[in-house]
Amino acid sequence: MNYKMKYGREKVEIKIPDENLLGIIESNAMDDNKTEEEVILDALENPIDSAKLSKIVKPGERVCLVISDITRAWQKMGTYLYYIVRELNKGGVRDEDIIFISATGSHRKQSEEEHRVLLGEKLADRFKVIDHVSTDEDNLVYLGETSYGTPVKINKMAMECDHIVITGAIVFHLLVGWGGGKKSILPGIAGYETIMKNHSMSLNPEMGSGSNPETKSGKVLNNPIHEDMLEAVNFVKPSFMFNVIMDSNGNIAHAVAGNYIKAHEKGCEIVNKIDGIPINEKADMVIATAGGYPKDINFYQTIKTVINAREAIKDGGVMILLSECSDGFGNEVIRKITQDFDNVVDREIELRRDYSIAKYIGYYVSEVASKTNMILLSSMNPEDLSMANISVVKTIDEALELAKKLKGENLKTYLMPHGANTLPKLI
């Protein structure tokens, strides 16, 4: 049979013999037919391990609303923020006592138009957005050090408020297990030194030992990045959390609110039920796509699909990635670490010398490519990734023919049409 998978703004037809198809790894449906407004209001009315937000705040108090940046506009914060502000107003908090800080982490500052997108039509004319700048030491306050030795520096304006309310979306995350929750604080409104010290635990302690297997999607137990991050956020103690969970159509399907630890744990359970997909065996070949544009807009974003597909493939197997990368690498640092070195050890040395998230992404994809036969269906120049042992092709037929040359015929195969979201779990 023929299967169609998204690539850029198009779909690619894939022909796999039925006897070779182990399965199609897709999300489980958990829709309960609520509108987005009903989902949002239900979460705010029924907070987890917490009073309602309107009962927590008092008139005259200053509230900092921490919101995601434009790279996460897919979570539709412009839809749900209005209801959170309305809840604050109900508790007697005036608009002039509410500040919005965008949790940019180490990302760039944003335009006024992007701020309006974040706030949504109902709030864009009522409020301004302040971009957090992780390198602005004058606007950071030192709170202490975690047991992992991470110096905790947090946005001063946020800490000067009576309450901090964190918002965001929960998805699987490549380093900390799940996104959302505490990530609004670290890396969201943390200092650059804090962010890099925390994220550097994505590597094993010993030089040459590569990436840390404890820091991965869907894992928090013994995950040092998660544990360190939680310790850091416990210095801050946000008063309230509101996080959404999106469906495969990009709509708000679920939401959790309340205590920043307990509500987030509940949200992670929901994500796991939807996108944590059990498999009985690993495959000889995995064909995965992020889900088309904009999820495959650049190589930077491709990491999400690589990490999930890796869980479904045998060592030495074939990984075919459908990722158009119309904007190329998406970050010059990734290009440099993939092209300036011809082996993973030298890349690791460079990463440890001066750690950054972009470097880690380039390093990790190269590390996976050293253990699998990675084929990238992409608009990128094949020479751009040749040093990283990644074969770039222009058609799916070319990819399948190359797979046959590398590993032979009759390869047991999984298809992952939403590879950036679905996490295979071997049972």
Automatic annotation (TrEMBL):
Q: What Gene3D superfamilies does the annotation carry?
A: 3.40.50.11440, 3.90.226.30
Lactate racemase C-terminal domain segment(s): 281-420
InterPro entries the record matches: LarA-like (IPR048068), LarA-like_C (IPR043166), LarA-like_N (IPR018657), LarA_C (IPR048520), Ni_dep_LarA (IPR047926)
Lineage top rank: taxon? Bacteria
- Pfam families reported in the protein's UniProt record: Lar_N (PF09861), LarA_C (PF21113)
Outline the extent of the LarA-like N-terminal domain.
Answer: 7-208
Which PANTHER family did the record assign? LAR_N DOMAIN-CONTAINING PROTEIN (PTHR33171), LARA-LIKE N-TERMINAL DOMAIN-CONTAINING PROTEIN (PTHR33171:SF17)
Name of protein: Nickel-dependent lactate racemase
Name the source organism: Sedimentibacter acidaminivorans
